[in-house]
Design brief:
Blueprint: H1 14-18, H2 21-30, E1 33-36, E2 41-44, H3 47-54, E3 60-61, H4 86-100, H5 107-123, E4 126-128, H6 129-146, H7 153-164, H8 175-197, H9 203-209, H10 219-250, H11 252-260, H12 265-275, E5 282-286, E6 290-292, E7 295-297, E8 302-305, H13 307-310, H14 345-362, E9 363-368, E10 374-375, E11 384-386, E12 388-393
Parallel strand pairs: 2-8
Antiparallel strand pairs: 1-2, 3-5, 4-12, 5-8, 6-7, 9-12, 10-11
């Protein structure tokens, strides 16, 4: 007699983090509203349900954290962990800072950083794409825009890595991660105070100076906004580029197509975001009882809105498991949805486009050493800790 094990989805599971997509397919088909016993939260997996929840902060609140096991100090003090009307005021101020700091006009700066590290990588014939290239590009780009010293970039990336990881046994941020959180906050505060005394041409100075209808960022909001932009910007950009490169390596015909026509890069980025987004699942808290799929989400319960699953929903996308850079992917959720749509979306896409352009202008071929690829362990983000790559030039 064959005994079938009951289906279990646990966002902390290493198997789920290694490859969540088979789990998502079962959830969408059989359990569109699923109670994750191990993580004490509901999971929404279908596109329409995820998009609807993201559009409804009155019922699905972010004010109790946007990641599982969030830092209580962040709750209500960042764009991602606040609801309207405070969220709208914060977003207006950060938007004003982006314009004042000319963040979206810094393509030449981003390209210069990318070329510097990529030239080293290709001169060496390759290496660890994460540690030696994408992490360095994303960290230097985000830190330069914010206004952190280049000499501190390596330490900042280590702190960010510590914040992303969750121990799969305890399901908590380990002591090393708590230490990293405190160190990064202290570092941000020190830099903010230095910019108050002597403003520079950077985003931190612009955030300090930002004013909309007489409002400015409070000291608490400013500190958490800077720390969030640093952490989320570094990790999401590096993880996205690595996921994209892995997808191209697994689909060499798509890599060849992109290499032969780099004008496809912006469209390819949209498909890459749909196919394997680095922000797989964010947290919401039910602000009231919600009836859905014959079950009741009780007020106060946690809910996962799973972008990674929604982006492969058969109800929304034709043949969603297929990676096709010529696809017009429609309204994917790779950058979020609703009031919490990623503020840095244009910046992230520009960084990724520049990376792909510079890579394929150099690469004759590249080979990922698959047996040495290491996934990061996070219930939220999907990325890589290590990905050795061998390259040859044109």
């Amino acid at each position: 007699m064959t005994v079938t094990q009951p289906f279990v989805f646990d966002p902390y599971s290493i198997d789920v983090q290694e490859n969540p997509y088979p789990y998502y397919a079962v959830l969408r088909r059989d359990f569109p509203l699923y109670w994750c016993e191990e993580a004490s939260c509901w999971a929404l997996s279908r596109y329409d349900d995820v998009a609807s929840a993201c559009n409804d902060p009155a019922r699905f609140s972010s004010a109790r954290g946007n990641v599982l096991d969030d830092d209580p100090a962040r709750m209500g003090n960042t764009l991602g962990t606040s609801d309207p009307p405070k969220h709208d005021r914060l977003r207006g101020l950060v938007n004003a800072a982006f314009m004042r700091g000319r963040v979206l006009e810094r393509e030449a700066q981003m390209r210069s950083i990318t070329r510097e590290y990529m030239n080293e990588f290709f001169a060496a014939g390759g290496g660890d794409l994460v540690q030696q290239l994408t992490a360095r590009v994303s960290t230097s780009t985000i830190c330069d825009i914010l206004g952190f010293e280049r000499a501190d970039h390596v330490q900042l990336k280590k702190w960010v890595d510590g914040l992303v990881y969750r121990d799969p046994a305890t399901r908590q941020l380990p002591p090393s991660g708590q230490e990293a959180r405190k160190a990064m906050v202290d570092y941000a505060l020190t830099t903010i105070e230095a910019r108050r005394r002597q403003p520079q041409d950077d985003l931190i100075s612009a955030l300090i100076a930002a004013e909309v209808e007489g409002h400015t960022l409070s000291a608490t909001d400013l500190m958490h906004t800077v720390a969030t932009l640093l952490g989320a910007g570094i990790e999401s950009a590096s993880s996205f580029i690595c996921n994209a490169m892995l997808a191209l390596a697994e689909h060499p015909e798509q890599a060849k197509l992109l290499s032969s026509n780099l004008s496809l890069a912006p469209q390819a980025i949209e498909e890459m975001l749909r196919y394997d987004t680095p922000t797989q699942r964010f947290h919401r808290c039910a602000a009231q009882d919600v009836e859905l799929h014959g079950q009741t989400i009780r007020a106060g319960q946690s809910v996962l809105v799973m972008y990674g699953s929604a982006n492969r929903d058969e109800r929304k996308f034709q043949d969603p498991e297929r990676f096709d850079i010529t696809r017009t992917p429609g309204r994917h959720l790779g950058m979020g949805h609703g009031v919490h749509f990623c503020l840095g979306a244009q910046l992230a896409k520009a960084m990724s486009r520049i990376f792909l352009e510079e890579w394929f202008q150099r690469a004759g071929s590249f080979t990922i050493l698959r047996d040495r690829v290491v996934r990061m362990h996070s219930p939220v983000f999907r990325g890589l800790s290590s990905m050795p790559v061998a390259v040859t030039r044109h």
